[in-house]
Each structure stands twice: as structure tokens, then as C-alpha cells.
Amino acid sequence: MSQAKPPSSEPEPSFETALQRLESIIDRIESGEAGLEQAIAEYEAGVKLVNRCRGILDKAEQRIAQLVEGDDGSVSTQPMD
Hints:
By secondary structure, the protein is mainly alpha-helical. The protein has two helices and two strands. The chain has helices spanning about 15-30, 35-65, and strands at about 65-70, 75. It has a two-stranded antiparallel sheet with strand order 1-2. β1 and β2 (about 75) form a beta hairpin. It is elongated.
């Protein structure tokens, strides 16, 4: 049985912010700045950021897929179910 995640007081980062944080984490790990324990913690944070970015991209892809061209050539979006 899985447990629900506790609510976070921090809002979820935007795609751009998550990507910047992820790049910083990669730079710190690759440069050897972080010790083993810190590198593992950074890696875990990076995985969460990757999942956040994937979620945002998946939603964007769904929205794009829902674009519909009308008979008059106009483009509109259909509500997602």
C-alpha cells in the first residue's frame, strides 16, 4: 500500500527553474564538488526534477495533441478529460 506524499509548502518549480536546478546539480556532481553523501542527495533531488520536467512536458504534449482545426480553418483547444 503506498502512502500519500505530505503536502509541500514550496510550490512546484516551473520547467525552466527545474531545468536550471538540474543543470546545477549535474555540474556539482561532475565537478567533484560534492562528497559521496552529498552527491547521492543531489542525485535524488535531480531525479525528482527530471520527473517534474517530464510531467510538464507530458502535459504540454497532451495540450498540443488536443488542438483542433475547425471547418473555417481556425484552431481551438478541446478540454482535456
